[in-house]
Q: What sequence folds into this?
């Protein structure tokens, strides 16, 4: 257990934050020990992977931070074309994807280069370029902080949705995810349905892409579009793309014919949060050191000396302005701490 632990390197906004207590969890024994301590029972606590989807509102977190550091990648089962892989929560997500692509196991290539740790991937059912974690997910193991027992979740039990799961909604902060299992395939046909991926493949003249082609293209698109948190603090998409009723979409489309919609269900259409923010005039704007990225309006950035409240205030101003202008409420994707 460490007193007054700096979290500056543990949040991708690059905020100068300190935690009253921190504990590094290298295995289940560390976790079992810590939950019996008085610090755990007396203080509030948070679970932290890479801190790439969190905004610390205050400079001092009056509580205990559980830093998930367990490691290990195990092939659990190999049968015919499919492989079940179990991976520890503390592994780096992007490195894990690379290692699977290198072995020729397909299914994760579209999720290349997403920052953070494996244990956080189910929290918001991470997704990119037409693929979500739930597409390959088999199950996970977690410690229930309420009952203090180890529990297994299958895919259905996780209640995955668009950037959502049970762990981000009804049971937020209840479980410490220790490992996840995914099913990958050796003869995998990559998903190239996403517009920018298909376009880039076409430009390169790749007609029959393998998983490493797709991984490479996804990395190139991401590097061109998204700011590197090591250079410019950010947490990727700050808001979710809103799902609106089809009638709301039609009304907006009448006013803005260029607005594109993606049918999500019988009644709802997904629209681009980036489009709404850009159309409202926020792209590239900054208030002090809190700003909206110049290339991608959905990404809020720390130009240097912003604190958590500066970024939060900017986000709330954007949210209110988009609501006033379009009648659409943007829901934050980032977790506020
Ligand atoms: C440049 C950039 C690009 C991004 N692109 C994408 C993208 O394309 N798609 C996407 O979905 N996301 C994206 N993100 C967001 C982020 O990378 C993912 O949400 C990632 O899964 C967060 O991992 P983390 O370890 O950093 O989580 P943290 O920020 O540490 O934690 C996020 C949440 O998960 C909880 N948590 C973390 N680990 C555990 C655990 N082991 N058990 C229980 N709870 C846990 C935390 O308490 C917190 O609520 C991007 C972020 C950045 C900075």
A:
């Amino acid at each position: 257990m460490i007193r007054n632990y700096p979290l500056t390197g543990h949040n991708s906004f690059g905020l100068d934050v300190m935690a009253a207590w921190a504990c590094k969890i290298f295995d289940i024994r560390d976790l079992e020990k810590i939950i019996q301590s008085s610090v755990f029972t007396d203080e509030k606590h948070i679970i932290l992977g890479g801190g790439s989807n969190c905004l610390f509102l205050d400079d001092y977190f009056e509580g205990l931070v559980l830093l998930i550091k367990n490691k290990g990648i195990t092939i659990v089962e190999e049968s015919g074309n499919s492989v079940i892989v179990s991976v520890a929560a503390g592994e780096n997500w992007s490195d894990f994807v690379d290692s699977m692509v290198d072995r020729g196991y397909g299914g994760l290539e579209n999720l290349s280069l997403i920052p953070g740790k494996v244990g956080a991937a189910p929290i918001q059912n991470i997704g990119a370029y037409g693929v979500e974690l739930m597409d390959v997910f088999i199950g996970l193991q977690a410690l229930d902080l309420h009952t203090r027992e180890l529990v297994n979740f299958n895919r259905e039990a996780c209640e995955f949705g668009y950037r959502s799961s049970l762990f981000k909604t009804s049971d937020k902060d209840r479980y410490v995810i220790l490992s996840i299992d995914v099913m990958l395939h050796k003869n995998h046909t990559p998903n190239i349905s996403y517009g920018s991926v298909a376009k880039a493949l076409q430009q390169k003249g790749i007609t029959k892409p393998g998983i490493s082609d797709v991984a490479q293209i996804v990395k190139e698109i991401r590097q061109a579009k998204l700011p590197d948190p090591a250079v410019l603090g950010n947490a990727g998409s700050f808001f979710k793309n809103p799902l609106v009723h089809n009638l709301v979409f039609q009304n907006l489309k009448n006013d803005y014919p260029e607005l594109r919609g993606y049918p999500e269900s019988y009644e709802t259409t997904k629209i681009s949060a980036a489009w709404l923010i850009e159309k409202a005039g926020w792209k590239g704007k900054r208030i002090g050191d809190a700003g909206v990225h110049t290339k991608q309006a959905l990404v809020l950035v720390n130009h240097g000396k912003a604190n958590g409240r500066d970024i939060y205030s900017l986000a709330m101003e954007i949210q209110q302005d988009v609501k006033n202008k379009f009648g659409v409420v943007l829901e934050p994707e980032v977790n506020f701490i």
About this structure: The CA atoms of residues 57 and 308 lie 4 Å apart.
